[in-house]
Design brief:
Blueprint (H helix, E strand, L loop, with lengths): L1 H4 L17 E6 L5 E6 L3 E6 L2 E8 L6 E5 L2 E6 L2 E6 L2 E7 L4
Antiparallel strand pairs: 1-2, 1-8, 2-3, 3-4, 4-5, 5-6, 6-7, 7-8
Length: 98
């Protein structure tokens, strides 16, 4: 599923307006292309190509902000975004454009 989620397709435009995400950042995930993470305090939307996953904020003592949706977890720490669907783990770096 993780490899299906992150593709080399152009990044999706945006989430629906009613989801009201306050932050939007683009991340480069190596040869797999770019993903967009839109987020607020309670949920996030991960956009890759035409695919969109909605994730909900996890409360955790571990470093970084964590969002999850079943088997997929997103960990945001500074300019680094980790997409985790065990046993797979992909690290992405924030780009300047969003």
């Amino acid at each position: 599923m993780l490899m299906v989620l992150v593709t080399a397709m152009p990044v999706a435009a945006a989430s629906p307006w009613w989801e009201h995400y306050e932050q939007r950042d683009t991340y480069r995930c190596g040869t797999l292309g770019e993903v967009v993470l839109e987020r607020n305090d309670t949920q996030a939307s991960l956009l890759s190509g035409r695919l969109r996953s909605t994730l909900f904020r996890e409360r955790s003592d571990a470093p970084g902000m964590r969002y999850s949706s079943g088997r997929l977890r997103v960990i945001l720490s500074g300019d680094e975004l980790v997409l985790e669907q065990l046993p797979q783990r992909l690290t992405c770096q924030r780009t300047e454009s969003a």
